[in-house]
Every structure is written in C-alpha cells, then in structure tokens.
Design goal:
The complex is a heterodimer. Chain A is mainly α. Chain A is built from 18 helices and 4 strands. Chain A has one domain: Cytochrome c oxidase-like, subunit I domain (Cytochrome C Oxidase, Chain A, Up-down Bundle), CATH 1.20.210. Chain B contains 4 helices and 10 strands; from the N terminus they run αααββββββββββα. The longest helix of chain B is centred in the N-terminal third of the chain and has 32 residues. The radius of gyration of chain B is 25 Å and the shape is elongated. The chains are: A mainly alpha, B alpha+beta.
Chain lengths: ~575, ~260
C-alpha cells in the first residue's frame, strides 16, 4: 500500500499511471463519459436513418466517407455497425465503467474510511486494460469493412459469416480486454469492502451504495468468465478454423460454409446471456445505491427499511444468475424450461418492487430539498418503475411471443438503463463533484440540464413501446418496408427529434462540468450536510484520504435524530 | 382496409389462439397503469407535503407502511395468477398441443435464408421429399433430393405462403445460414429459425385475406434483414386447393421467376 509515502511521485506516476483510487476513479469517470457521448453520437446518426429512411445524408457522407454511404444514402452495413457499437459502447465502455469504475473507485473506499483500495496496482491495471479494450473498439471503426455489425449480442452464425471482416474479430479481442478489466476490478472491490472497513463500520452500518457495489462486484466476478470463454471460442471460430457455434450443413450465400460442423448456435446465446442478465443488474444496482444516498441526504431522514433494501439487493444478486434464458423463449425452448425461467423472472421482480417501494416510502415524513442531485435521483424512481414494469410482458413467455425482439424490448431496457441508470449517474456526478473538486456545480445550469434530459429521454423511449406493440422488429434499417412500420413512422420521427434535442440538452452539463472546475463556488468538506464517511475527508481528499483515520459510531443515515443539535449525525462524529 | 390492420397498438388478430396473448398483454398493461398511478400519486403527494420549508422538520421515525405490504402482496398474487393461469398454459399450448398427424391439418416446411423465407409444400402425396444441404443451389432452394419419389410433387415458393383458413397449420422451421425469426404480428406467432434445428410451430387463421409483407423477420440476420418479409395468403379451402393444383402443374417455376 502506498498510503504513507511522502515523496513526490512525478506527473506521470501521479496523474497517468497512478495507483491512487481517486485518480483512477476520475480517469474512469472521464473516459466513460467520453464513451457515453460517443455511443450517444452513434445513436443520433442512426436516428437520422430511422426517421428519414434512405434520405440524402450528404452532410454525413462528407464526415464519414464513402465506406458508409453511397450517393448520400446510408448503407445498411453502416447502420448495423452503428447499432452494434452503440450497444457495446454504452454497456461495456460507458455505463458500467462509470457506475463501477468511476463512482465505485472514487467513492467506495472513502465511504468505508479506507486510505485506498486493497490492491492499488491491480486497480491501475484494471483501468489500463479497460482503456486498451476501448482503444481496440474505437480502432475497429477504421479497418477495412468497418466495426462489428452483428448487434451487441453478436449471435453466431451471423457473426461468423464474414470471417474476412476484422471488425468483429477486433470486437472479440476488445471484449476480452474489457472482461479482464472487470474481473481485476471486482476482486479488488470485494477484498477492499471485506478487509478495509474502519473501526466501527460493521456490514449493517455500510452505506447502501457500498452494499450495491459489493453485490455488483460478485456479479461481475461470477458472470463475466462465461462470456470471456465464449468470446475466445468465437474468436477461434473466426481465426483458427474451429466450429463451436456452427452446425453441419451451413450454406452461406449459396455456398457451404468453410469449417462449419458440430457446433451449436444456441451455446453462444446461453453463455452470452448468462453474463448479460446479471449485467443488467450491474447496470442498475450502483444506480440504486447512488439514489439511496441522495434520497437519504435530501429528505433529511433515514432510508425506509435499510435492512430490507440490503436483503433485497443480495437476493437480486443471487436470482440474477438463474433468469438468463428468458432472453431465449423464442429459440424453441420446451415447456418445462420455460416454466422455470418464467417463474424465476417473476420472483426477481419482487425485490425490485421492494427496493423501489422503500425508496419512495423514504420520502414520507422528510424535509425534501430539491437540489440538482435530488431532482435527478427523484426522476430515477418513476423512470425505473416504467422500465421495470414493462419487463413483465417480456418475462412471461406467452406475451413475449408477440413482443420479443420488437421495439418494445428496446423501450423496456432503455427505460431501465437510460432514464433509469443514467439519471442516477448524473445525480451522482452533481452530488460528489464538490467532494472531487472542492467546488459546487452550477445549480441553474444543472436544473436546465435536468429538465431537458428528463423530457427528451421520455420523448425518445416512449414511442418505442408503441412501435413494439405494432410489431416493428428491432434492428431494422428501414421499418417502412413493412406496413406495420409505416403505421407508426410518426412515432419514430418523434423519437429521433427527441434524441437530437436530448443532445442539445447535454450542452449545459458539459459547460457546467468544465466551468465549475474553475469557477464553481468553493465549499468545505461537507456541503450537503451528509452523514457518510466520504464527507469526513477534505475536498478534494489528499493522497491517503483522511488526515486521521476516522472511526464509525452509528449507522449511515442518522438524519433528524431526536435530541441532536443538528439535523444530521455523521457516522464519524462521536 | 389496410389502415384497419395496423395501428398504434396491437394489430388485428386473425388467429384462433392469439386472443390469449392479447388478453395477457392487456391485463399486464392495466396492472402497470394501476401500480404506476398508485406510486405516482403517493410520490407526488410526498414531494408536495414534505417539501423543505420554514418551520418544517423531517421526522426520524419511518412510517409503518401497511399499505406497501398490501401492495406487495397484491403484486405477488397478480403475478402468480398471470403466470400459472395464463402465460404457462398459453405458451405451453403453443409448444405442445399440436394437432395429431392425419387430422385435418396442413404441414409446411419453412427454410429461412438471407434474406427470404422459402416455403416447402409436400404436394398432393402429403409427403415431404428428403432434403440435403449438399443439393442446395439457386434452382433448388431447399436442397430437395429429386431421386426421392416423395419429392416428385413437392414444390417450393419464395417469400409467399398460402394457407387455408380455419385449418391448423403446422410449420417445421429451420434455417440454411444464420438465425432468423419467423414473426407474423397479426397471427401472434414468433419462432426463431435456427440452423441445425428443425423447430415445430403452429397457428390457425380465422380470416381470409391477402396480407402483404405480413411475415417479418424479427432477428438481425444481416444487411438486408429489413427486407426479409413474406406475403401471407389466407385462402378459403377451395382457393387453397386450386392454388395447390396450379402449383403442382408446374406453376412452381413461374412463381419463382416472379420472385426473381
């Protein structure tokens, strides 16, 4: 551990190859925010094609060149690249690294009173492996044939059909890097939370955010290895002539596929979803943790049912490993298997309902402050509710017959991850910015950002439920080919305009993020009058975090304790 | 007429079993509305009543939330009822309750490829000729083995499916290349077409009509995934028999040329 060496390590060691969890957390945050904007930009281009299919996009052709356009018209393969990379970037390079790598790295050690992570060098390795994976993914746009174009799910045999295109090969290599990074990070998180809690900080005094990170780390640790294995197998199918995922007698474009034989396309789907369902909870649990912190702080009262929140999160974690095949009801699954996965899927909805109910009940009897982080955190609640509820018709196999692989699915999971998780992540940025920089973000710009984001996110995703109901399949380059697509094309156009306006709504955030660094109001170490340990450290915390090792005397959310002089009783004050 | 088929909610349902799927979807959405509005009213009420203001203090005590217990029990009961009462039987029936062989039913093989639906009919003998991937070429779309006597009267259409009304249709679905998904929104059926597997599915149409591009592909299958549609013709028994006779007498090639 390097918490106590006092020599100046020099610029490179301090800011680039740093082992300090705070620097690594900031590196993760900035990198993943850039990836979020990149993923969002790809989507804004897709939305042009969706709203105005085959229109003249010469202005885009001038930017992206002739590989993606012919005579101003976007090519389907370019559209598919945008789609596959939008999903990959948002999930694996944007949201998860921001929620876990960024917030987890920066906040979690502070909240448990630790001077750093248990394995600082492993932490550094985790970031740089992630960074490498991101570079590989970005480079894949510039190779012959472009980036991966078979969806973020990369189902074989489709993903194996064009072995000469190296975009998909690079996608697989990039995924192996990203998964390795997650594994290094998750081990570190688990050990840190178990070993480095300060005196007095028992498990049931941990902030809810730490619990969320703790369970998330187990999900990453246990769910990712199957996809790493699957990724290597698909890589072998592409480069080494194996056939793990291709059955006998495959005829691609009229000629027998080389090497095909003996494999099974469904093997990939099982391995993929064995990761990707827990991954959904990796996306949502840290967001719930952030919302819990901010709601407690701004209602000025303890969270309702702290223990039931913790038990629900643990239960969610376990259950998330046995629901994966609800993504595969349409693969010819028999009745007994579908009964199992429908039942587990209904069971997993119960703890989600409990968590949401607990957070809403926490408002009762509070004294609610409507600052920027709180507005974002409050918005998370109804948005996540829509995302969760619309999962029900997809989790029941009979209604899934109609809705599977339609836009309804896209609407559902985006409501969980975008208006849900992203709102919470924005809340977290506004909430912890003063801890990281010692300055507040501007409140007026923050509220402008909040209202624009909330309105336009709904504008983007609500139309998708209508499209899905009408039967429009996902991943269609031009839905107007179908009559049922034409019937809801107005909704698609509305969705596209909302997406572009959503882009404009991010301008106040970008300005605020950079300007506040220099011009934000300077604040002391605890500007929100909060109770958890990160607010015991100076803002920004120095190397090693705390001037003296703190001690914990009570639970995490002791607000408005009767008889106390202030309306908050920090964990670290005797 | 076309406008009445598709709209801003579920399209019309022309199948025997689709109403069960629709019932489940409708009930779930009513349930969502009830829960969401309930939450939203409570949420909004809290935000107004417990806003920070002069002279207002938060209370340390949390409420004893009996209503939330009732709400959670209501959710559980509702989910159990829908799961065991509706979803499991409906999905199970779609997977297991096939009309027995020899009964009044139509059997068709569908072989998906990038980017068309090949529909293989057994012809007058009712027997499918054997097929092999080795025999597939631009003329022989499903690799029919012409040395097999059962194949003699078989015929294949591309992107066109005729079925008789009020008769159960059993499809064996497979794919030559990648994974596709056979989706007829107005029939409330969907099934992935997976190479190496032949998966049975069934439906029964209740309304005669020509449904242009009613068959969709629901699984990304490549660049022209978006054009992979098929036309569905639900015929009266007489029209269907007439069409079969026409195809048997060599209309087959004509049809394919039309498609080219």
């Amino acid at each position: 551990m390097s918490g106590h060496d006092h020599h100046d390590p020099g610029f490179i060691r301090k800011y680039v190859f740093s082992v300090d969890h705070k620097v690594i957390g900031i590196q993760y945050t900035v990198t993943s925010l850039l990836f979020l904007f990149l993923g969002f930009a790809l989507m804004m281009i897709m939305r042009a094609q969706l709203a105005y299919p085959k229109a003249d996009f010469s202005f885009l052709e001038n930017i992206f060149g002739e590989a993606g356009f012919v005579g101003g018209t976007m090519l389907p393969e370019f559209y598919n690249q945008l789609g596959a990379m939008h999903g990959t970037i948002m999930v694996f390079l944007g949201v998860v690294p921001l929620a876990v790598g960024g917030f987890g790295n920066y906040v979690m050690p502070l909240q448990i009173g630790a001077p750093d992570m248990a394995f600082p060098k492993l932490n550094m390795a985790s970031y740089w492996v992630y960074f490498t994976g991101g570079v590989v993914m970005i480079c894949s746009f510039f190779v012959e044939g472009g980036a991966a174009q078979y969806g973020w799910t990369s189902y074989p045999p489709l993903a194996n059909t064009q072995p000469h295109l190296i975009g998909q090969t690079m996608w697989l290599v990039g995924m192996v890097f990203l998964i390795t990074s997650s594994l290094l990070g998750s081990v570190n998180f688990i050990v840190t939370i178990v070993q480095l809690r300060v005196k007095g900080l028992t498990f049931f005094r941990l902030p809810f955010f730490v619990w969320a990170q703790f369970i998330t780390s187990f999900l990453l640790l246990l769910a990712f290895p199957p996809l790493e294995a699957a990724g290597v197998l698909q890589l072998m199918d592409r480069v080494a002539g194996t056939s793990f995922f291709m059955p006998d007698g495959l005829i691609i474009s009229g000629s027998p596929a080389v090497n095909a034989g003996g494999g099974n396309p469904l093997l990939w789907q099982h391995l993929f979803w064995f990761l990707a369902h827990p991954e959904v909870y990796v996306l949502i649990l840290p967001a719930m943790g952030i919302v819990g912190e901010i709601v407690a702080n701004n209602t000025r009262k303890p969270l309702w049912g702290y223990r039931s929140l913790v038990y629900s999160v643990i239960f969610l974690g376990f259950m998330s490993f046995i629901v994966w095949a609800h993504h595969m009801f349409m693969t010819g699954m028999g009745q007994s298997m579908s009964i199992f996965f429908q039942t587990t899927t209904m069971i997993i909805s119960i703890p989600s309902v409990i968590i949401l109910t607990a957070l809403i009940l926490s408002l009762w009897g509070g004294s609610i402050r409507f600052n920027t982080p709180m507005l974002f955190a409050l918005s998370f609640l109804p948005m996540f509710a829509i995302g969760g509820l619309t999962g029900l018709p997809l989790g029941l196999a009979a209604s899934d017959i109609q809705l599977h692989d339609t836009y309804y699915v896209i609407g559902h999971f985006h409501f969980v991850v975008a208006p849900g998780t992203l709102m919470a992540l924005f809340a977290g940025v506004y909430f912890w910015y003063p801890k990281v920089t010692g300055r507040m973000m501007n409140s007026a710009l923050g509220k402008l950002h909040w209202i624009g984001t909330l309105v336009f996110l709904n504008g983007v995703f609500i139309p998708m439920f209508v499209q899905g109901m009408a039967g429009v399949s996902r991943r269609l380059y031009d839905q107007t080919h179908y009559e049922h697509g034409q019937a809801v094309q107005e909704w698609t156009i509305a969705s596209s305009w909302s997406a572009w306006l959503l882009g404009i709504a991010q301008i106040p955030f970008i300005l605020n993020f950079f300007m506040s660094f220099f011009a934000g109001k300077k604040v002391d170490q605890n500007p929100w009058k909060a109770t958890t340990l990160e607010w015991a450290a100076p803002s920004p915390p120095p190397h090693g975090n705390f001037a003296t090792e703190p001690e914990v005397y009570r639970g995490p959310y002791e607000y408005s304790v009767p008889g106390a002089s202030d309306d908050y009783s920090p964990q670290f004050v005797k | 007429m076309e406008e009445s088929i598709y709209g801003w909610w579920l399209p019309i349902d022309i199948s025997v079993n689709g109403h069960k799927v629709d019932l489940l979807i409708d009930m779930l959405h009513w349930f969502m509305v009830v829960i969401f509005v309930g939450w939203a009213i409570f949420f909004t009420y809290c935000l107004v009543r417990f806003r920070a203001r002069e002279g207002h203090k938060a209370s340390y005590e949390t409420i004893k939330a009996k209503p939330s217990k009732y709400a959670e029990i209501f959710v559980v009961i509702f989910e159990v009822v829908l799961l065991f009462g509706l979803s499991i039987p409906t999905f199970g029936a779609s997977r297991t309750d096939f009309p027995a062989e020899g009964d009044d039913r139509v059997e068709i093989h569908v072989v998906a490829e990038q980017f068309q639906w090949n529909v293989h009919y057994p012809g007058a003998d009712g027997k499918f000729g054997s097929t092999s991937p080795k025999l597939v070429d631009s003329e022989n779309l499903v690799g029919l083995d012409h040395s097999d006597p059962a194949a003699a009267d078989d015929f294949v259409t591309a992107g066109i499916m005729h079925i008789p009304v009020d008769t159960p249709v059993v499809i064996r679905l497979t794919s030559k290349d990648v994974i596709h998904s056979f989706f007829i929104p107005i029939m409330r059926v969907k099934q992935d077409a997976i190479p190496g597997m032949a998966i049975p599915m069934q439906f029964e149409a209740t309304r005669v009509g020509e449904y242009s591009k009613a068959i969709a592909c629901a699984q990304l299958c490549g660049n022209n995934h978006f054009t992979m549609s098929g036309d569905l013709f639900v015929d009266t028994q007489e029209d269907y028999d007439a069409w079969l006779a026409e195809m048997a007498s060599g209309g087959d090639e004509e049809e394919e040329e039309e498609e080219e």
